Amino acid sequence: MSQEKAAPRPGPDDLTPRQIVEELDRYVIGQGEAKRMVAIALRNRWRRQQLGPDLRDEVMPKNIIMIGPTGVGKTEIARRLAKLAQAPFLKVEASKFTEVGYVGRDVESIIRDLTELAVGMAKAQHLERVQRKAEELGEGRVLDLLLPPPMPRPSVGFTEEAGDDAPASAPPDSHETTRSKLRLKLREGKMNHRTVEVEVRERGLPIGVISNVGGMEDIESNIREMLGGMFPGKKKKRQMKIPEAQKYLVQEEAQKLIDMDEVTREAVAKVEDTGIVFLDEIDKIASREKLAGPDVSREGVQRDLLPIVEGSTVNTKHGAVRTDHILFIAAGAFHTAKPSDLIPELQGRFPIRVELQPLTKEDFVRILTEPRSALARQYQALLQTEGLSLEFTADGLEEIAGSAAHVNDQTENIGARRLFTIMERLLESISFEAPELEDEKVRIDAKYVKERLHDLMKDQDLSRFIL
User: Fold this and answer.
1) Which domain holds residue 429?
2) Largest Cα–Cα distance of the chain, in whole Å?
3) How does pLDDT run across 322-358, given as a tens digit for each residue?
4) Running DSSP on this structure, what letter comes out for residue 385?
């Protein structure tokens, strides 16, 4: 009987909401309701693509507000979701923006930055497709530098070292034979010590930095790109070792092989259909009280965000980008403000609200052990590089989790980030002495944890500053 092959891992379009939640469970502990909501939102994007063109444009994304204290997994859920979807993803802090006309970044820069990310993603995919062809062409150019063709080519430079391998006017058969030998040596790495002269292009522009004021970097970038065609930059020759020269020439050939117009079209379509924007600290722009005069960092930003969230066209250097179907996920602690403090029009554009729960001691134990990049595994791997074996016992992990939960209750609740503080304090002496403890085994149990953290846990004033 033939042995059954393992089923291939489903692609982003094949993931059902249940599978999306299972994937998120591998990285984020708890918060099942939030995971279900983002999984449904992601699946709805696939469902929309299956509709006819007349109805497809009418189906709008259901934007989400995640409400919960810091360190409970809001950002991580959105970041992992974007990786699953293989979609352009941008995380921004709402408090960094100001109303149009004031000093600071305007909200349209969100879409410009997202488009830049998408262009980078599409370009990387195109470069990957032409990589093999580019390597062949780059190898050929290195061979041309080492062994110029029989007919003289003024644009090709070579060092005197190549003169011993082939005379300048060799017969065609002899030239091909020598070139084949050089190719074999090049692939075997026997010529890595050789140096060749490569012509490189410098991009020089006759302008300096316009301003370091927020928002001006976009204008400066556009001017630099516009003038780049007028002042293409000087060419100069550089001496390089063969591995460095080959890498440079392969990159140059790859850039020639890809069609940047096609890359840009793909990127803009990707942003418009699958882009995800994570708006963190949305509660910081919620107006808690009505102030006299314009509020440039709160209500003004909300008014500017509104057309982008509800759907508009933003001009970028890669063309116009429609925001109608970009998914916006907002998040905030809402300690002093509440979602109803946002302007009504913006509230209506975030129909789904999900509350994330504070983490408990049991959640901390799971965070330390269950995820693929669990905190305990990270510290074990780090100290293993010094030859030190670190073992966490079950009661030791329980004590660490209990300490983190206790400090969160007594001081400011910063969620899972408290574990980093506790672990650093706990393993401070071990990390410092690790190079001298080679080939030793250190056991972290409940007794060890209590001894290291007892004084700090007892003195609340001290723990406020240290833990």
Assistant:
1) 361-455
2) 88
3) 999 999 999 988 888 888 888 888 888 999 999 998 8
4) T
